[in-house]
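Raw record, unedited: Cbb3-type cytochrome c oxidase subunit I
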Amino acid sequence: MKNSKIYFLSTLMFFLNFIGNAQNSQMTKDWETSPGIIGTVVLIIIVLFVAVVIFLAKLNAYLDRLKQRKLDQERMAFSDELVSLDNEEIDTILENRKKALKYKLKGDELGSTNRAVDKKGLVKRVRKDPNNSFFDEKKKTPLSIETPKKLKKIVTYYLAAATFWLVFGTLVGEYLGLKFIWPELDKISWLSFGRLRPVHTNTVFWGWASLAMIGLGYFVIARTSNTKIYSYAKAKIAWILINSTVLLGNLALMAGINNGGGEYREYIWPIMLLFAIGLILTLYNFYKTVATRKISEIYISNWFIIASLVWTIVLAIIGYLPFYQNGMGETVIQGYYMHQGVGMWFMTFTLGLVYYYLPATLNKPIYSYSLGVLAFWTQMLFYTMIGTHHFVFSPLPWWLQTVAIVFSAGMFIPVIAGTTNFLMTMRGAWNHISKSYVLPFFLVGVIFYFVGSSQGSFQAFRFTNFVWHFTDFNVAHSHMTMYGIICFLLWGCIYTIVPKLNGIEPSQLLVGGHFWLAFIGLFAYMISLMYGGTLRGLSWMEGNAFMESVTLMQPYWVWRAVGGTLMFISHIVFAYNFYYMVKKEREKPIKRSKKSEIIKGESVTV
């Protein structure tokens, strides 16, 4: 623990020293030597390295399976050879087999002062580290959780609705990606880019991610509080309100009824009011459940989850109140709303889920509760003031822009604390990457948490902001965070809990297909827009005509469409996997594991 704290502090000091020199390079001719540019390149290399490691682990596992298949064939050949043996030879072999079957341990082979010797080869694996328990490889679920029907129904309904909105929202995104290549794809007003783009973003924000988080949160809140959900009726009402918000909001957007230029708040206030009421009901439900918990401690996940609900309700009120919504005041509110929505709703809530589902997957406790508390409070402190870094070099006060940049740099603290906590929790389980279909999602999500958040801090520096702002690079960054972090972590949580709720495992082949299609698609999407966006920003800085940058982006928009298509296909695969895991009627009856953990009431302690 002491060594990890020293490592954490030294890493933090390195970043702060790195940031101190980040504003010095202002010459466009030396743009590639800017600390923000160099830092972004290094972060991308980290993602690529992790992908290679996962691929090699999976490849090695596949080769091992081929080797095992060869051994099985040799055993079959040996069985065929037995047929040709004489009766006396067969009797001798059978007699030896019978002796082996009757052999029993005396009890002192491994538990006495004698030297441990396994002459019969009965011990398959020895683990000398008592703090690192055996890992659930997720090939088959050895432990099924018999959850009350009401709780299981709520979780399933939220996740099912979220899956639907994911497929619909990204279908719209896929169509928009194709429009970059074929602008004349249609001439229908309600299918125009200006109307469909907010449909895509709001659907995946408020439909997919929000419903998935809340659904997964209901299980965490009940389980870590060792009590029942306060009100299932309120959970159902909130589900109806949030889904109604997305449905009515999208119809209004496609009809041309919107909230003007407010990004991520295009839904008009009467519709968004439904979402706010749904959040208030959810917060009340979660709070009352935690307040009536059967244990004294409040688990760290609940800190993040309840805090994110409080902040988002405040955010919705501020973002939609008519006060200060004119002139530069609206710009300040827009920066606050946009960044708070991503950081204090999606990021904070999802991190709370990871603090439960990751240790549950690994069958071990979180590495450090203290690091979790540090990450929580620094997230609350620094994230609230960074929205203005989207308006560097704008008419906003220079001091306000500087504060946003400084607080963006401060975000290295919660990011490094959280990443260290998660990776140290995974320590000792790296060799299981090849066997688990859950761990790759968590690993990629955690790495993107570090990479995407750090890259956002680098992008806040004045020079890198000057190069990248208003270019396609921002689209790549938003997908790196909202997709690379939020989506991968939510998928990891879903693949962790749904099979245990229903006792039905998805096909590892299809889960692997989902993972690689999503990851390769995201990487192609991200790299093409980052590179093209950089060239576009440099073109503007050189004073070239705007249309030249449009022509310049054409090949990168093709790769954007390719990456987006792969991601959309992965969502279809995920939707099928989810349907398979929750389907009630099966051709063959499901045999539940003899090892079952019955939750009396609603849940048990962690």
